[in-house]
Design brief:
Layout lengths: L1 H9 L4 E4 L5 E4 L5 H12 L18 E3 L3 H15 L10 E3 L4 H8 L5
Helix pairs in contact: 3-4
Length: 113
Amino acid sequence: RHCGFESAIEAGAEDLEADDDGNLVVWTQPNMTNAVASGVGPKFGLKLLSSDIIWSANDDTKVKLDKGLEATSLADLLAALQEFPEVQAVYGNPVKGDMSEEEWARIEENLDS
């Protein structure tokens, strides 16, 4: 495993992890996505299922949302953005603060992981 990680690093990967379905997730800079996708699979003898750029908030940039107007306003904005055909994905950095599960679900359903 250590040697495989080094090979992934040489291909441009920054980190490797397994997701909940047992797939290997390779983290890299957006401009390295294609190079890493084509380089890591063959080195590990793996079949590439997909290659996407995922915008993932760093822990130090996440914003805690509380109930009330800010949660409702954000949920409304996210829902409105999803209605535009030009919008391919909506990413954000909120974390659940003091709000109900229903309020949080409304926000989560309009965010792309």
